[in-house]
Amino acid sequence: MKLRSFIGAAVVLSVLAACGEEQVILPGDRFDLRPTPVTSNEVRPIGLQQAQVNADWTHRNGGPAHLIAHPALGTALQPLFVANIGEGDSRRARITGEPVVAGGVIYTVDARATVTATATNGQALWSRNLTPERFNPRAASGGAVSFGGGRVYVTTGFGEVTALNAATGEVIWNKNLNAPVNAAPTFNGDVLYVIARDSTAWALDAATGLTRWQQSGTPSVTTFGGSASAAVSGENVVIPFPSGEILATNPQGGLPRWTNVVSGDRVGRAASVISDIAGGPVIDGNRVYVASFGGRSVAFDLRDGSRVWTADEGAVGPMWPAGGSVFMVNDMSELVRLDASTGAPVWRTELPDFLGENTRRQRSVVAHFGPILAGGRLIVASSDGLIRQFDPASGALIGTLDLPGGAASAPVVAGQTLYVISKTGQLHAFR
Fold first, then answer.
1. pLDDT (tens digit, 9 = 90+) per residue, 247-293?
2. How many CB atoms lie within 10 A of CB 257?
3. At 34, is the secondary structure helix, strand, or coil?
4. Coil, strand, or helix at residue 4?
5. Which of 12, 32, 57, 207 sits between 20 and 30 A of 98, alpha carbons compared?
6. What does the pLDDT read at residue 224?
7. Overall pTM > 0.85
């Protein structure tokens, strides 16, 4: 016992002695553990193409390439209508898809696989619950919708893809993929492209639902709730897998053209372990913009998959390229403008991260959806009950709209009207 006491005292004395020694400063440069954000925002003029009135918004970010020309939208927006679309967000269910608009009808999916068609005056046209009979309706969450060829294509957390008659909501065909699908399908020509959460990409015959071809990526154990869809342009289908892999294939036969990966993370952020592609892919000419949830965004050359640049910015949704810039809401709750040629930051604007001021208690995280560029301004819908509008040249906040219930989806624009789904399961229209 005395020996143990002696040893313990000796250890304490040696530690105290070491604390009294002069600190040795090693030579060399010092680098921050975390990437240092840009500290001086630049107001840089931006040349946007003239805004055009678009009648439809058929996919995420507007079209199959996940990019739409500058849609027209008035500046003095006012509430037009509010329509119920089904069940909203809860502890066990989430809305994971934004609205699509085609032929004067808005199509939505609620948190429990109910599809609703709403007229542009707010009148409900039809509703269809796509919960399979073999499942408990509360067993799965999420889903998304796209439009093409007079049909509404729907994915659900139950692992099924369904084609509906856009006019009546009647089921045309249904296919079980045996894995949840929260991202919207992508329609192009006569093929429907779907990515399941088991890292399997499917090319389905849009008319019948029969399988044309499949491609598999590396499975991932960490995924993002909303997930990303395939982007299609010309002779390329760009497929994002949950592991961070990016695969470009031929649209018809699925023959791989090139593959690459979005890798890396933001040091010090627990979410950086999520490799899932939350931002993109977005095809703009010969560029593909992709971002992971964990802290990286990349520009690839569409022709051969070579990396043009990499930025230390994650994304929570698709990026929006315009006027030689790329806009995104990053993984740090910031609206960011990057130079499209280099990936260098031009400016960043902080968005609310949490609700409340008490740092000692758990607070509600504020989710941000977007941005989209419409009517000459950037628009972000947020779960704190505001739609924020920003100047794309400077990043300055130029206006807000109240959104009762808070946002559950990115905003979309069609017919000079802005639509967004709230967490309470309502479709809000502004014009």
1. 999 998 899 999 999 976 665 454 555 667 888 899 999 999 999 88
2. 16
3. coil
4. helix
5. 207
6. 54
7. yes
Residue whose structure tokens are 């143990």 = 4
Q: What is the pLDDT of residue 2?
A: 39
User: Domains of the chain, with CATH numbers?
Assistant: 53-430 (2.130.10.10)
Tokens of 13: 């004395």
pLDDT for res 68 = 95
240 φ, ψ to 5°?
A: -95, 125
CA–CA gap between residue 65 and residue 83 (Å, rounded): 29
Dihedral class, residue 74 (left if φ above 0, else alpha if ψ from -120 to 50, else beta):
beta
For 408, residues 6+ apart whose C-beta sits below 8 A from its C-beta are 88, 89, 94, 95, 369, 383, 421, 422, 423
Across the beta sheet with 426-430, the strand order is: 79-84, 426-430, 417-421, 412-414
Strand order in the sheet with 245-249: 231-233, 236-240, 245-249, 256-261
Low-confidence ranges of the chain (pLDDT < 50): 1-23, 33-34, 36, 38, 268, 270
Closest-CA residue to 372 (of 43, 41, 67): 67
**Half-sphere exposure at residue 138, Cβ-oriented, CA atoms within 13 angstroms:** 3
- 213: exposed, middle or buried (Cβ count in 10 Å: 0-12, 13-18, 19+): middle
Contacts of 357 (CB under 8 A, 6+ apart): none
285 Ramachandran zone, left/alpha/beta (phi>0; psi -120 to 50):
left
Convert 176-199 to b/e letters by CB count within 10 Å (16 or more is b).
Answer: ebeebbbbbbbbbeebbbbbbbbb
Cα-Cα-Cα-Cα dihedral of 361, 362, 363, 366, to 10°?
A: 150
- In this structure, what token pair is assigned to residue 139? 């067993």
